[in-house]
Amino acid sequence: MELMQGSVNIYRDIVKAKSEKRKLFAILIDPDKIKIGKIDAVIALAVGAKADCFFIGGSFIVNDVLDEAIAIIKASCNIPVILFPGSSRQLSYKADALLFLSLISGRNADLLIGKHVESAPFLKISPLEIISTGYMLIDGGVPTSVSYMSNTYPIPDSKDDIAVCTAIAGEMLGLKLIYMDAGSGALNPVSGSMIEAVSGAIEIPLIIGGGISSPELARKAVISGADIVVVGNAIEKDPKLIAELSAAIHD
Ligand code: 1GP
């Protein structure tokens, strides 16, 4: 059930999967957290479990290994690599696509449009597929790097109505994906009721991530309406979870 291997149009394939009610599994690799030597094992497990794509990035990359990590993945498999940048410096032409994130849950103008203006000329000439994405930070019960680094408050986890209106506004602005994120290592993932409310209010695909630490939580996210489920931390801790996560999301 893998997504778009060797594809040239990743967004088209995400929309197709949604229309066919196929749920997608994205493995998040944060080059700050994963040891380069461990990537091979994660790739082998991802291929075996038919993971759909790799997201690569982090809110605070200090190690200069983004290019290297992507090169290793590209040399080992056909699973698409999608940049999930925490800053405009996290750019690599070796990836297949880039989530062009606008932090629509926050009110930091730089992260709504400022950084986009700065990076636009480079992205325009890049070979990357650019996928505009409304990024919504949801309170996951612990302060997150994203919240601190972006200087924005997350949407309270009980405020489904604010999340719904934010996602609708993002869709009306022409964004192609909505990504609701409780933040890496969140105590509480985005609630089933919020996922259900938002997925029922928009037509564009919905990505859910943050604090999904077990196959049961991944399953809950897809049953509630997630189109793509992203898992990072739990896989860093125990890569062998990949097979079970994949089954929970795909079956
Ligand atoms: C964070 O959504 C991602 O931006 C994944 O979160 O690392 O908690 O799985 P975890």
Question: Which features would summarize this protein structure in a list?
Answer:
binds SN-glycerol-1-phosphate; TIM Barrel; 17% strand; 10 helices; alpha/beta; eight-stranded parallel β-barrel; 251 residues; single chain
Q: Looking at CATH, which topology would you report?
A: TIM Barrel
Strand order of the largest sheet: 1-2-3-4-5-6-7-8
Strand content: 15-25%
What is the CATH homologous superfamily assignment? FMN-linked oxidoreductases
- Nearest-angstrom radius of gyration? 16 Å
CATH uppermost class: Alpha Beta
Query: Which ligands occur here?
Result: SN-glycerol-1-phosphate
Mean pLDDT: 94
Question: Which class best fits the helix and strand makeup?
Answer: alpha/beta
Helix content: 40-55%
**Would you identify the regions where 5 or more consecutive residues have pLDDT less than 50?**
none
* End-to-end Cα distance: 9 Å
Principal-axes shape call: globular
What is the H-and-E element order?
A: HEHEHEEHEHHEHEHEHH
Please work out how many helical segments DSSP would assign: 10
Secondary-structure arrangement, i.e. CATH architecture: Alpha-Beta Barrel
Largest sheet: 8 strands, parallel, barrel
